[in-house]
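> forwarded from #structure-qc
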């Protein structure tokens, strides 16, 4: 990712208030201690050069994706849009769906998971803990098995987040015995997969912060890459509704 530029980033939608883009796998959503390029910085450079802006362009980060996770993200081009989007997220009016490829076949094909998670900032890892644990945060998601490979070694899941905790999907799916393929943190008991983390933010839906129009943005993972290429993703286009 060292040589990546904003020309490598796919812009899904743009108006005076919003910028929707696709974050590649292994690119940070915002600058961190590594000093590596980040999506927010690249998109700011895009705005500066496209509109010949003096100095730095404003772009508000209203939600995040883990560095190894790819998929669709929305940014605010004004502080008013940022404030309204943050409020929508806080009030549960910002829906996010993911595709994930996990090891094996979940015992329950469709389930609502509720766990309590605690983050260890020293190791940047998260674990499931009892509900009364100090600093534990409630985490909820729904998943549905869309398809499984012959032999059941891998399954494609649709995941809908109800909360937005750090590493939430990765930890909750690992906790039920189905860690995500390519996860170096939470799939230690599985054969190492020669692929990126198979977690992709496939859909975001929310009301436009100014017009109030309901917006839905959907993107799909790279179909020529493992393990996505093992599944016919076109089959599930309508199943994410």
């Amino acid at each position: 990712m060292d040589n990546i530029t904003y020309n490598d980033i796919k812009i899904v939608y743009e108006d005076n208030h919003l910028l929707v883009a696709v974050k590649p796998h292994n690119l940070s959503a915002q600058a961190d201690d590594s000093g590596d390029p980040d999506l927010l910085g690249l998109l700011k450079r895009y705005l500066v050069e496209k509109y010949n802006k003096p100095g730095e362009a404003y772009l508000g980060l209203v939600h995040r994706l883990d560095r190894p996770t790819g998929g669709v993200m929305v940014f605010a081009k004004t502080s008013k849009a940022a404030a309204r989007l943050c409020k929508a997220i806080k009030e549960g009016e910002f829906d996010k769906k993911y595709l994930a490829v996990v090891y094996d076949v979940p015992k329950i094909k469709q389930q609502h998971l509720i766990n309590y998670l605690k983050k260890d900032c020293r190791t940047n890892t998260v674990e499931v803990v009892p509900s009364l644990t100090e600093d534990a945060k409630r985490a909820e998601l729904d998943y549905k098995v869309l398809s499984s490979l012959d032999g059941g070694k891998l399954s494609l899941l649709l995941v809908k987040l109800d909360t937005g905790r750090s590493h939430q999907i990765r930890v909750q799916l690992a906790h039920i015995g189905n860690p995500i393929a390519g996860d170096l943190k939470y799939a230690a008991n599985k054969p190492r997969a020669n692929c990126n983390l198979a977690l992709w933010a496939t859909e975001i839906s929310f009301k436009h912060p100014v017009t109030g129009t309901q917006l839905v943005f959907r993107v799909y993972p790279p179909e020529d890459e493992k393990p996505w290429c093992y599944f016919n993703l076109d089959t599930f286009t309508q199943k994410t509704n």
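QC bot note: The helical segments are 39-51, 79-90, 168-175. The mean pLDDT is 93.
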